[in-house]
UniProtKB/TrEMBL annotation:
It comes from Nonomuraea angiospora. Residues 6-149 form the Nudix hydrolase domain. Keywords: Hydrolase, Magnesium. It comes from the Bacteria. PROSITE patterns: NUDIX (PS51462), NUDIX_BOX (PS00893). Pfam families: NUDIX. Its cofactor is Mg(2+). InterPro entries: NUDIX_hydrolase-like_dom_sf, NUDIX_hydrolase_CS, NUDIX_hydrolase_dom. This is 8-oxo-dGTP pyrophosphatase MutT (NUDIX family). The keyword Secreted does not apply.
Length: 157
């Protein structure tokens, strides 16, 4: 089956807690439900939206954490990736931003779009060490390095 090509400019939000862990979502491609993976929060910028604005909008929509664009730090890396998801062949420009969240941050899937609710199974806070030692799939694959750059080895900004 031929995939529909899609080009996206995305902002990825990396919530970091007081233990220098990053929040990731666990989900799957509906075309491959038996191959789950961990991924960062984020999505495509909408018309007229800056990347930091897109990052905080996605942060609220995907995990219910409210923030302002001026609370973000970064960007921490920019890359172009290609992957398949459902019927799409996606080329994605992605830029990563960090935001420090308190230990009391509450994660909620209430504001997700239905397709996100249907394909997101869980969330988890990950340390750089856990990312480096896990056998589970996560994206981006260099996330442990990005997390270490953000945290500087410890402590919040």
């Amino acid at each position: 089956m031929t995939k529909i090509p899609l080009r996206r400019i995305t902002a990825r939000a990396l919530p970091i807690d007081d233990q220098d862990r990053v929040l990731l979502l666990h989900g799957f491609d509906p075309a491959r439900p038996d191959e789950p993976f961990w991924y960062t929060i984020g999505g495509a910028a909408e018309d007229g939206e800056t990347l930091p604005e897109a990052a905080v909008r996605e942060l609220f929509e995907e995990v219910g954490i409210r923030a302002n664009a001026d609370e973000l730090s970064g960007p921490y890396g920019n890359s172009v990736i290609e992957f398949n998801w459902s019927e799409y062949a996606i080329t994605q420009d992605q830029t990563f931003f960090a935001i420090w969240v308190g230990a009391d941050a509450v994660v909620s899937f209430d504001h997700m779009e239905q397709v996100e609710k249907d394909t997101t199974m869980a969330y988890r806070w990950w340390s750089a060490e856990e990312l480096e030692s896990t056998e589970e799939d996560f994206f981006p694959t260099d996330l442990a390095s990005i997390l270490r750059e953000i945290t500087g080895g410890g402590g919040s900004a």
